[in-house]
From TrEMBL:
<feature type="domain" description="2Fe-2S ferredoxin-type">
    <location>
        <begin position="1"/>
        <end position="90"/>
    </location>
</feature>
<dbReference type="InterPro" id="IPR012675">
    <property type="entry name" value="Beta-grasp_dom_sf"/>
</dbReference>
<comment type="similarity">
    <text>Belongs to the 2Fe2S plant-type ferredoxin family.</text>
</comment>
<keyword id="KW-0411">Iron-sulfur</keyword>
<keyword id="KW-0249">Electron transport</keyword>
<keyword id="KW-0408">Iron</keyword>
<dbReference type="InterPro" id="IPR036010">
    <property type="entry name" value="2Fe-2S_ferredoxin-like_sf"/>
</dbReference>
<keyword id="KW-0813">Transport</keyword>
<dbReference type="InterPro" id="IPR001041">
    <property type="entry name" value="2Fe-2S_ferredoxin-type"/>
</dbReference>
<protein>
    <submittedName>
        <fullName>2Fe-2S iron-sulfur cluster binding domain-containing protein</fullName>
    </submittedName>
</protein>
<keyword id="KW-0479">Metal-binding</keyword>
<keyword id="KW-0001">2Fe-2S</keyword>
<dbReference type="Pfam" id="PF00111">
    <property type="entry name" value="Fer2"/>
</dbReference>
């Protein structure tokens, strides 16, 4: 997995959320609810595919079609390149 904007790479297991893998790797993505509703962690998927742990995450149909994902409930189906990501300052 790669966060293009910040030049950061790390591994994410197929059964692990993108948020959990980032935190495990020392990358602090801005997040709040961790269940797909608050949208705090929303970012743009430049390439790759994800699966969601919830039936319909807090994204509109258009946002999903435009490539936006919620890392707190997204697991990778392929290698991911993410841009437009906000990292926590804490």
């Amino acid at each position: 997995m790669r966060f293009e904007q910040h030049d950061i790479e790390f591994q994410c297991a197929a059964n692990e959320t993108v948020l959990h893998a980032a935190l495990r790797s020392g990358v602090a993505i801005t997040a709040s609810c961790r269940n797909g509703t608050c949208r705090t962690c929303m970012c743009h998927l430049q390439s790759g595919q994800v699966n969601y742990q919830v039936e319909w995450p807090g994204l509109s149909f258009d946002e999903k079609a435009d490539g936006y994902i919620l890392p707190c409930v997204a697991t990778p189906l392929s290698e991911l390149i993410i841009d437009k990501l906000v990292l926590s300052s804490a």
